[in-house]
């Protein structure tokens, strides 16, 4: 175990997984090793089908891997749920509940939806630019606004580690950029630990402290990149020649791998 591993909020070692498809065992994840320290913004960057969402489900305890272990805050958590807060690719808001009641769902389930939780939820919604929409229903919001509600809901969960599975992939390019900038502003103030999934090299470089680059299926980690850009980051960063150089290299790296 290395120095950095010993303080990890999340540590995954020697993890492999396979699914049965057409009666054959198909390897999906191979020898995954990674660690996340408290307060880091880490991204998994990899092609479609390489096993990213499967890895999230394993971290969330919904799938038990064939081999390997998930350690959360030093405790063996393989196959155990409830340790992380999870924002799926689709916002998955409950259509019959208002924005505020959607955000308060987790607190309600855990019996802590008192006035303190309500005022925290209102404050978060205000920071997300949704103060006037508390009493609206999901279908009355745009896609980007629904994503922000889902994000606020994940923020309201007490778990330190947030998993975000391609949260912006369904949005148009402009809205996506706005959402990235919004996320980075919120994160730079609050520093929750985030594990983020994306196919987008730009998104990974703009947001992350470190990036784990994955190969096509079966997903392996082919590179770990410490992103050298200082914070706070602004949209000007994408014009930096260093940004372009990293982007080009990562593109070549991903292209050099056989695709699924
Ligand atoms: N429950 C399952 N049973 C069988 N095969 C599965 C199951 N879930 C995922 N797979 C397969 O595992 C592989 C990885 O799927 P996964 O959803 O993890 O990929 P991904 O990297 O998240 O892709 P994308 O970027 O398109 O979301 C795919 O080939 C998929 O068909
Ligand atoms: Mg996926």
UniProtKB/TrEMBL annotation:
Domain ABC transporter: 10-241
InterPro entries: AAA+_ATPase, ABC_transporter-like_ATP-bd, ABC_transporter-like_CS, ABC_transporter_ATP-bind, P-loop_NTPase
Lineage: superkingdom: Bacteria
SMART domains, alphabetized: AAA (SM00382)
Keywords: ATP-binding, Nucleotide-binding, Transport
Presence of keyword Electron transport: no
Gene3D superfamilies per UniProt: P-loop containing nucleotide triphosphate hydrolases
Keyword DNA repair (UniProt): no
Cleaved signal peptide residues: none
SUPFAM superfamilies, alphabetized: P-loop containing nucleoside triphosphate hydrolases (SSF52540)
CDD domains, A to Z: ABC_NrtD_SsuB_transporters
Gene Ontology MF terms in the entry: ATP binding
Name of the protein in question: ABC transporter ATP-binding protein
Source organism: Marinicrinis sediminis
């Amino acid at each position: 175990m290395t120095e950095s591993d010993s303080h990890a909020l999340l540590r995954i070692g020697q993890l492999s997984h396979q699914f049965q498809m057409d009666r054959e065992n198909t390897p999906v994840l191979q020898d995954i090793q990674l660690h996340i320290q408290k307060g880091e913004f880490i991204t998994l960057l990899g092609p479609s089908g390489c096993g990213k969402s499967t890895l999230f489900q394993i971290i969330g305890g919904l799938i038990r891997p064939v081999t390997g272990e998930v350690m959360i805050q030093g405790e063996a958590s393989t196959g155990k749920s409830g340790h992380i807060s999870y924002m799926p690719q689709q916002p998955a808001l409950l259509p019959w509940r208002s924005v505020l009641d959607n955000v308060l769902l987790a607190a309600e389930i855990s019996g802590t939806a008192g006035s303190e939780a309500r005022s925290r939820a209102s404050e978060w919604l205000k920071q997300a630019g949704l103060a006037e929409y508390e009493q609206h229903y999901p279908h009355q919001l745009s896609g980007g606004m629904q994503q922000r509600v889902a994000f606020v809901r994940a923020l309201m969960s007490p778990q330190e580690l947030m998993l975000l599975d391609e949260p912006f992939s369904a949005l148009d390019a402009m809205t996506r950029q706005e959402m990235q900038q919004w996320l980075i502003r919120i994160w730079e103030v609050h520093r929750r630990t985030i594990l983020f999934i994306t196919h987008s090299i730009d998104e990974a470089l703009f947001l992350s402290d470190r990036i784990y680059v994955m190969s096509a299926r079966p997903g392996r980690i082919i590179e770990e990149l410490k992103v050298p850009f200082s914070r706070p980051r602004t949209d000007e960063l994408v014009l930096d020649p260093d940004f372009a150089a990293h982007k080009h290299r990562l593109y070549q790296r991903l292209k050099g791998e056989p695709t699924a």
